[in-house]
Amino acid sequence: MRRSLSRRNVSAARSHNRIVVLCASINDVSSWPFWKFLQLKKVKGVTDLHMLAFNSEGGSFVARIDGSEYSVKNYEKVVGYHQPMLEEFIDRTYDEGRTFFVYGGHGMGDYLELEEYKVGLQVHELAKIFGHRKYEAILFDACFMANLDCVYYLRNNTKWIGASEGYMWEEDVALDAHIFNTYTASAMSRFRDPKTILETIQRDYCNKTRMGDFSILSTEHVEKLWEFVEKHVWQRVYDSTTFLSSKEHEELQHQAEETLSDVNEPNVDGASLVSTSPSQIFQSGTSRKRRLLRAAQFKHALYPSEYEDKHLVDLRTYLQELADDARMTAPIEGELSGSNPVELLEKVVIQHTPPFMNQIYSSPLGGLSLCVHEFSHLSRSLRRNRVDKTKLNERASTYIEESNARAAARKSQQEKEKTQAKELDQ
């Protein structure tokens, strides 16, 4: 269908930036991409926008704002993610020198979750789909995408990335509380400088929520940061990993729930914790590997009480520890000797606005996270793991032994109580 928006000159409108939007809707928010588009088509200044929306319940669509007209084409039989459709969409909509890419949906740092617990488009796979195309900026209207994997793998596809390191908490009932809304879409369409656009988005989003954060990221120096993390950070991440018992995990989750309820944020009603029942996690019938994956706790995890999300850790905190240790002992060796690790990070994290209510996270957000891929449900990392896992394996073995001993003791106690109950009945 096609409708007229105004009598504005179409050729003049096309001088604006082009916005290419990919949406993925799952669960109970299956209609939001369509309502988002209906809202955007009314915005003054948005004159060249393409949207592809995948719906896990069917009813995917492609929409377009073209100067003074708009169009929507439904694909009722396309259920969930369809890669050939995305590839064709990317190829058709790219216009060099004026195209901005926006993703709206679920993000997990190193991948986009396009179908819940089923389909994850890895960031390195998205980069492959982009090919040699270079966008003016890439914006993630999603959780967790201010992540080192994201910046590194998209380094050849853009200079600028805007994203949140933490959760996006808002329900977006009015369709204006998220990162990509009518105001920021207008700015992205009309402003020329990508960094200025991301600064505008940062101010708008962080002024609307006390729990949100936003990073402006540059890909120019990310290779040096990546190399440093490979050589000096990953070993520290694994060496400091511990394992929690069922009781400890219950206490951790209880603390997280109390913190969230104490925040008193008006919009927090829609932010639900991922319910991870310890009775399900730590049951004796669960495989050894799965028990270890779920019991592992990372020193600087953003939200360690959440099994599905706890593999995300704050990079700045590890780098600051490394810098502090280097000042106390010998300087870091190698070709990066003399470099301040935090300064390397700040060449990538150009600006970061942390959440005002930062107590909802167990680690301070420094603008960029790491993914511990082995502990992520859908991650398929290209990174070769070169760390020494001796300490990790020792702790894992100790945890399994102690866990089995506790389970055996509980079983023995239960059998004893049953025997005593039978004796009393007699």
From TrEMBL:
InterPro entries: Peptidase_C11
UniProt feature, compositional bias: Basic and acidic residues: 412-426
Domain of life: Eukaryota
Alphabetized Pfam families for the sequence: Peptidase_C11
Chain residue ranges for the region called Disordered: 398-426
Protein name: Peptidase, putative
Species in which this protein is naturally found: Bodo saltans
Higher taxonomy: Eukaryota, Discoba, Euglenozoa, Kinetoplastea, Metakinetoplastina
